[in-house]
Specification:
Layout (H helix, E strand, L loop, with lengths): L7 E7 L10 E7 L5 E6 L5 H16 L4 E4 L1
Parallel strand pairs: 1-4
Antiparallel strand pairs: 1-2, 2-3
């Protein structure tokens, strides 16, 4: 089971928050097996390209590619 870390993840965006250090949105990435999460601050108007870069910078570089990504 320890090898399954960050292989099944879910993501979601929480938008229109009060400004905190100029950020108004949080990308939440959750490990579905171990229930650990990363909260990545960003802007409301984040592009797909920039969201992908944030994902690569904050989670992929630590855990490599996931087998499954669930998002609504």
């Amino acid at each position: 089971m320890p090898n399954a870390r960050w292989k099944i993840i879910s993501t979601d965006f929480v938008v229109k928050l009060s400004k905190s250090m100029e950020f108004t949105t949080v990308i939440i990435v959750v490990d579905s097996v171990f229930k650990r999460a990363y909260f990545i601050p960003t802007y409301t108007m984040v592009t797909v390209e920039n969201a992908g870069r944030l994902f690569l910078h904050h989670t992929w570089k630590l855990y490599s590619l996931s087998n499954s990504i669930v998002s609504d």
